[in-house]
């Protein structure tokens, strides 16, 4: 690449060579008026480009499959088998609660079932004997009916005993906390020795292969949203890597406090999705595109919130204030809203030593390119 010689560089060269005829004050004036040589690669031509437009979406990466496992019985934690970050398979035992009292209840319930069964069977045999005797006229109908009532009562008691036994077995089973699906333990809430009550959170399990972007969009832009639209976004912790996705679902109600609408965005390539939940993400829903004048970042000179560029105006350089739109994440270009026109040429990497009205000359290659463009 050809180097751009500024006026300051020319002055330094003259001073170093010690050439006559360049006294201090005169030399300073000469350097201020020195001509800047501009190479072709130092010029950016303002032109139209397609800029994607759409509402900004912010949110986080969350797993679709996640389970917050809570205590279903009041007991003491006696064993923890999996810790944070450990992979689990469906049905793996994660935690064990004390089941001593519950097993005693189960034993009692099983004994009640055995006793109720015996009572029912005995009552049923008595009914059958009385039916035979009643057919022979040896007992009254009332005696048979009384036996049938006793048989029906014992039958009801047997059903109730069996229900209590089933409930007792379920309570014992609930002391074993198992993984509901293949995944990873994301958060363990208790330790061995903790006493937990019903409903206390014990452990969280997530499926890292089911990550999605759960984002929020301002309700002011909800009319632009449709399922299936492309979303491009970046994830905190992954640098400048850009991810793509599609809107799967749009909530039917906006948040009453923030006035934002929640979206669910699926990754276009699930294999490239982050495997860590909770990461912040920000991007844009591409609801359409338009042709606008654009500039890359390098020609823009910023001073606070103001922006300007150095335009090649005739034979001199002029500092021109410009108004820019939001940066297009996909192309990295800024839309020019005001200050420049199509075909304007600006310096790609302006230095801080430039002065308004400074003369410039195009290098040979740049001159030839400009002449070709004029034909």
Could you give a quick summary of the protein structure above?
The chain is α+β, with helices and mostly antiparallel strands and 375 residues long. The chain has helices at residues 7-17, 24-32, 100-135, 141-173, 364-374, and strands at residues 36-38, 43-45, 47-53, 56-63, 66-70, 75-80, 87-88, 93-97, 176-178, 183-188, 195-196, 201-206, 211-218, 230-235, 242-250, 260-267, 280-286, 288-295, 301-303, 306-313, 316-324, 334-338, 345-347, 360-362. A hairpin with a 6-residue loop joins β14 and β15.
Strand order of the largest sheet: 3-18-22-21-20-19
- The percent range for strand residues is 35-45%
Uncertain runs:
1-33
Main β-sheet description: 6 strands, antiparallel
The span between the termini is 26 Å
Order of helices and strands: HHEEEEEEEEHHEEEEEEEEEEEEEEEEH
Overall geometric form: rod-shaped
**How many beta-strand segments?**
24
Radius of gyration over alpha carbons?
A: 41 Å
Helix tally?
Answer: 5
Helix content: 25-40%
Please, what is the average pLDDT? 85
Class from secondary-structure proportions: alpha+beta
Write the layout of secondary structure elements.
Elements: H1 7-17, H2 24-32, E1 36-38, E2 43-45, E3 47-53, E4 56-63, E5 66-70, E6 75-80, E7 87-88, E8 93-97, H3 100-135, H4 141-173, E9 176-178, E10 183-188, E11 195-196, E12 201-206, E13 211-218, E14 230-235, E15 242-250, E16 260-267, E17 280-286, E18 288-295, E19 301-303, E20 306-313, E21 316-324, E22 334-338, E23 345-347, E24 360-362, H5 364-374
Parallel strand pairs: 1-24
Antiparallel strand pairs: 2-23, 3-18, 4-13, 4-17, 5-12, 6-8, 6-11, 7-10, 8-9, 10-12, 13-16, 14-15, 14-17, 15-16, 18-22, 19-20, 20-21, 21-22
Helix pairs in contact: 1-2, 3-4
